[in-house]
Amino acid sequence: MSRVKRGVQKNKRRKNILAQTKGYRFDRSRKERVAKEAIHHAGVHAFRHRRTKKREFRYLWTIRINAAARGGGMSYSRFIDALKKANIALDRKVLSALAKDHPEVFVRLTKSLKK
């Protein structure tokens, strides 16, 4: 059986790994073994934080809606309850955008729910 030399593939793989860690500090951007570990950890954090980001945004939307609703004389929970009873199907993202970008519309919505 003939001998297989893997220099080309090995160098290509190493180059790819080090390209992924460009900008990392110290050995993480220069040594293959450490760089591989850094890529793995970065991937783990990226996966986890993609999930956390959704949670944090919903929390931010809740805070914005609460602040705007209190400006209109309602608490957040009463505001959401009134929306559900009025069959208004706006999600928190849209309500937050209304509260932030179009406060006069949000105030009108709050007043219509108070009646």
Automatic annotation (TrEMBL):
<keyword id="KW-0687">Ribonucleoprotein</keyword>
<dbReference type="InterPro" id="IPR005813">
    <property type="entry name" value="Ribosomal_bL20"/>
</dbReference>
<dbReference type="GO" id="GO:0000027">
    <property type="term" value="P:ribosomal large subunit assembly"/>
</dbReference>
<dbReference type="GO" id="GO:0003735">
    <property type="term" value="F:structural constituent of ribosome"/>
</dbReference>
<dbReference type="InterPro" id="IPR035566">
    <property type="entry name" value="Ribosomal_protein_bL20_C"/>
</dbReference>
<dbReference type="GO" id="GO:0019843">
    <property type="term" value="F:rRNA binding"/>
</dbReference>
<comment type="similarity">
    <text>Belongs to the bacterial ribosomal protein bL20 family.</text>
</comment>
<keyword id="KW-0689">Ribosomal protein</keyword>
<keyword id="KW-0694">RNA-binding</keyword>
<dbReference type="GO" id="GO:0006412">
    <property type="term" value="P:translation"/>
</dbReference>
<comment type="function">
    <text>Binds directly to 23S ribosomal RNA and is necessary for the in vitro assembly process of the 50S ribosomal subunit. It is not involved in the protein synthesizing functions of that subunit.</text>
</comment>
<dbReference type="Pfam" id="PF00453">
    <property type="entry name" value="Ribosomal_L20"/>
</dbReference>
<keyword id="KW-0699">rRNA-binding</keyword>
<dbReference type="GO" id="GO:0005840">
    <property type="term" value="C:ribosome"/>
</dbReference>
<protein>
    <recommendedName>
        <fullName>Large ribosomal subunit protein bL20</fullName>
    </recommendedName>
</protein>
<dbReference type="GO" id="GO:1990904">
    <property type="term" value="C:ribonucleoprotein complex"/>
</dbReference>
